Amino acid sequence: MKKINYLLISIILTFLLSNKSYSLDNNNELQLLKEEHIFFCKNLNSTSISNIGRNWKIEKKSKYLQLLIDETSQQTLQIKTLYRSNQIQKIIFTYFKKSKIPFIEIRSNKNCEIQSLRKIIYNDKFIPQEIHTVNNVKYNIDSIKFLNPELPKFEADRNKNIIALIDTGINYNLNVFHPNIAVKNKKILGFDFWDNDDKPFDSDPRQNSFYPRHHGTTIFSVLAREAPNSFIAPYRFPALDMCKFQELVKHIAGNSIRLVNLSMGSNKLQDWSCFEKAAKVNKNIIFVVSAGNNGFDIDKEPIYPASLDLKNILTVTSSDQSGRLGRGSNYGKNSVDFMIPAERIEVIDHRGVKSFTGGTSYAAPRLVALISRYIEKNPNCTNDEIYAFLKKRAVQRDKKLTKYGWIPDPLDNYLIN
After folding, report:
1. pTM assigned to the model
2. What is the rounded CA–CA span in Å between residue 33 and residue 198?
3. String of b and e for 212-222 (b: at least 16 CB within 10 Å)?
4. Under 8 Å CB-to-CB from 359, ≥6 apart: which residues?
5. Is 365 inside any structural domain?
6. Which of 38, 44, 59, 280 gives a 20 to 30 Å CA spacing to 362?
7. Same domain for 67 and 197?
8. What sign has the CA pseudo-torsion 357, 361, 364, 368?
9. Which residues are CB-neighbours of 267 under 8 A, at least 6 positions away?
10. Helix H segments across 268-382?
11. Burial of 296 (0-12, 13-18, 19+ CB in 10 A)
């Protein structure tokens, strides 16, 4: 830890002071920054840093984590040390504004050589807009990842035979998806209940804000392929306030959408209590929910909302092409309704690249697409008629795994026409 070079710290400080890319032109400024942080570099493992120029105070300290506070600038520095076989493998510096808003991350190897440097750009409402990846040799911006880009323009509305997709959003800049996006008043029909705006762009920063994960785009691609005549309204789920699910479901109901894909869940019932209330009120909406990928019986170890006992929730798990339970897929003879082949599914990912993936998250859109095609041919059908159709399509295999059985080929229009 004591070998951290001064150049690393000077880069950190430069980014704290400016939104511009780093430059070595001003050597005097660079020298001042290095001198200011010599003490900090040499005393990362010290129990006292009272003489440091930026007024950092140790809030928490352990072998794996250091948390430092600078009350003057209202900034927090988190230093995580990752080990393998008791040897340092990586050191991660993360700077936060007002203790909770991450804005700079620098990853170093065990010799404290920079591996990556990223910065998040926010708008005035602290909604993340961009992630800048900085070249650690030239110290300029290598690439920009957009997190909340402008919406595409659509010429005509498409607001019939709609599927609501509740997930992490979609990459609506991919032209290949535009024919399948639901449109109302020439704008995307849907909403971002995470950032509270009309841009449901695919991003899940919960694990790491600087390397957000993407999920909704691949789900969208399955729906678009298997229900080609349906239109999909993307909703980014309210991760920061799960009770906003009541608003979300109200928005779906207000647009006369009766079919929802929900490929997500958790083991905390309280996270889904507001969703449960909304689903109970809106009995005409069918929610198709993934069973989860924990590899256990959710009758005994519940996953929500999959384990909620509501008639308008259909829970689906994944199988291989032979009807065997997918590796790691959850099951339950009371909680899981159907099993769908979804262990190797072609998708289009967030980059617009074709790839293969699988699991219960992808079993859900396959069942949703089957239901959507049935509704397309039978627009006046009731929910009970939909359930009866699905039961007829199912083959009962192992009664310990699901309630109604396995649907071998959800792309087959048998019993629809």
Report:
1. 0.88
2. 42
3. bebbbbbbbbb
4. 290, 293, 318, 326, 328, 329, 342, 343
5. yes
6. 280
7. no
8. negative
9. 301, 302, 303, 304
10. 273-281, 360-377
11. middle
Instruction: Give the C-alpha distances (Å, rounded to integers) separating 379 from 160, 174, 224, 373, 392.
Output: 11, 30, 19, 10, 19
Tell me the C-alpha distance between 76 and 100, whole Å.
8
Q: How many domains does the chain have?
A: 2
Residue type, 307: S
Of 86, 112, 146, which residue sits at a domain end? 146
Asked if residue 335 lies in contact with residue 298, where contact means CB atoms within 8 angstroms, the answer is: yes
Least confident of 60-74, 116-130, 262-276, 294-308: 60-74
Q: What is the pLDDT at residue 4? A: 45
Whether 377 is in a domain gets the answer yes
Q: Do 168 and 286 lie in a common domain?
A: yes
Residue 10 in any domain: the answer is: yes
Weakest mean pLDDT among 52-56, 270-274, 285-289: 52-56
Residue range(s) defining the domain that contains residue 34: 6-146
- Residue 51 falls within a domain, yes or no? yes
| The Cα angle at residue 94 between residues 69 and 38, in degrees rounded to 5 | 65
| Token reading at 151 | 């919406």
CATH of the domain at 399: 3.40.50.200
Q: Which two tokens stand for residue 55?
A: 């007024």
Measure the CA–CA gap between 257 and 236, rounded to whole angstroms. Answer: 16
Secondary structure element (H or E) that encloses residue 27, with its range: helix 27-42
